[in-house]
Amino acid sequence: MPDPEVADELALPDLGAMRAAQARIAPHVHRTPVFSCHALDAEVGAELFFKAENLQRTGAFKARGASNAVFSLSEGDARQGVVTHSSGNHGAAVAYAAARRGIPAFVVMPETAPRVKQENVRRRGATIRFCAPTIEARDAACAAVQRETGAMLVHPFDDVRVIAGQGTVALELLEQSPGLDAIIAPVGGGGLLSGTSIAVKSSAAVIRVFGAEPANADDAARSFRSGRVEALPAATTIADGLRTTLSRRTLAAIRANVDAIGTASEAGIVRAMRMIWERMKIIVEPSAAVPFASLLEATLDVRGMRVGIIVSGGNVDLDRLPWQT
Amino acid sequence: MPDPEVADELALPDLGAMRAAQARIAPHVHRTPVFSCHALDAEVGAELFFKAENLQRTGAFKARGASNAVFSLSEGDARQGVVTHSSGNHGAAVAYAAARRGIPAFVVMPETAPRVKQENVRRRGATIRFCAPTIEARDAACAAVQRETGAMLVHPFDDVRVIAGQGTVALELLEQSPGLDAIIAPVGGGGLLSGTSIAVKSSAAVIRVFGAEPANADDAARSFRSGRVEALPAATTIADGLRTTLSRRTLAAIRANVDAIGTASEAGIVRAMRMIWERMKIIVEPSAAVPFASLLEATLDVRGMRVGIIVSGGNVDLDRLPWQT
Q1: Is B280 at the interface with chain A, CB within 8 A?
Q2: Domain containing residue A96
């Protein structure tokens, strides 16, 4: 039996749910460090605090939301395992959390998913179910797994427990870097940005919250303005974690709590990613470089501010780097 | 007038000198974090604590020794500036420390030094003096700068102040990770390993201290056995920071305080570097991967131990990675 709040398709977590999530997932996730770098500060004329979720277990913040969802399940609901669809970081995160709880995990991914991503899920003990690379095939495969196995769905972002878990990044950052003027998170499906914005506005309403996304996938910025879930543009982006539209739930949270959404060009994302590698010496994936890229391109204006930046993940194919042609 | 202790060619710093160095350089260097990673622990059957000096200012531990030397100078000695020879991390570190003190820096480097390394020195405001790529030409150029300008020499490793500064890495690590059984540092000229071994054996003699170097540049292991400064083998190594022989001074410290020196193959260094990038999400240069590589190849046996590993630096040419052919 799904929790009624989980079943409510517009429910959102509050600060209390996020604090509960923080306690629930503490044994399973790292309290990641916050880095600063004068060279990068100088590039944008602000004081930047990089919350390094690339150093999180599984290499991305997704371990938080997935762990909160998996460890929120009752014994009875958990027994049959969990299922999700994601060829990226969320798939690995659900596999990780399920392995920690000792329950089965099923991850639906397109046959076309890169081998490195398949491996990342498989080595955590999850079962992969392949489907055709369409949304319809994906949803059908997910539903089939649920019917066959009784596994509970853990959606990548349209889930109140997942959003509560992602909000714990901001709770930590607020403790680690007092006196921030603004916090920026990348936005794809909006789980991280929803959680961040609720956590920040409930704790310290004066702090601005910004989203950042590729200009080539600016559906969140357009949805933010129109109030409807807008479709993704046809163009693709190197920021593979952000090729997703919002849900009605995440749009509602973002419209209520976010101050602005910036964008970054493809060249700007690559440049920002390389600067972070070169100057901060940490490995970040393209999606994680989008907030800093939006500052470099000044689509968000934070000059003179103390700004927290959520570095969402560090899972990159090291055989081919985006600045190598 | 050089300090008489600096002029003594076998003088070594003691724990007191290292604590003084720690206080002296505190405003100029980061207290770098220590990372752990279960996946890497599992590879070697030990509990590893990576002291991330790749996140140090200038991207390497060298900022410590250079800052200690530069800020140890009297007002009178400092006025004419400092000179060193190094196309690598030490050159940038001396340039950095001199800029912090507001004095001139001259860095002698071979005409053949890669442009990225020249840029790293120049953008910190130092003056480059080019020389032919031989040791004789380098020493002659250094001496000429000293004569012409009155600048004080800050040797990359054969300097009691530099060794004291490098020893502060281990002082911090001992505080940050209590209960270590062993500490491993890479060894080229031996400044870091000398400082580490003195710091550790003076603080907690029970902790083992190991060096690690490329099998292709195993002069330190051979010098350690023979008691003489042995020449570098003709073969080269990807670990460009470790292509240096010891000095009589560093050999004396290492013979007195180090328990063993391990080696790593070229393929092992590349494999270790890539594992650290992929699993820990931090950028380390080949030299910094040598200690972990020596554990993977079991030329040092630390199974079951709690082991501190000094990650020496993270300055890498991101256009060409060693695993890309």
Answers
A1: yes
A2: 63-153
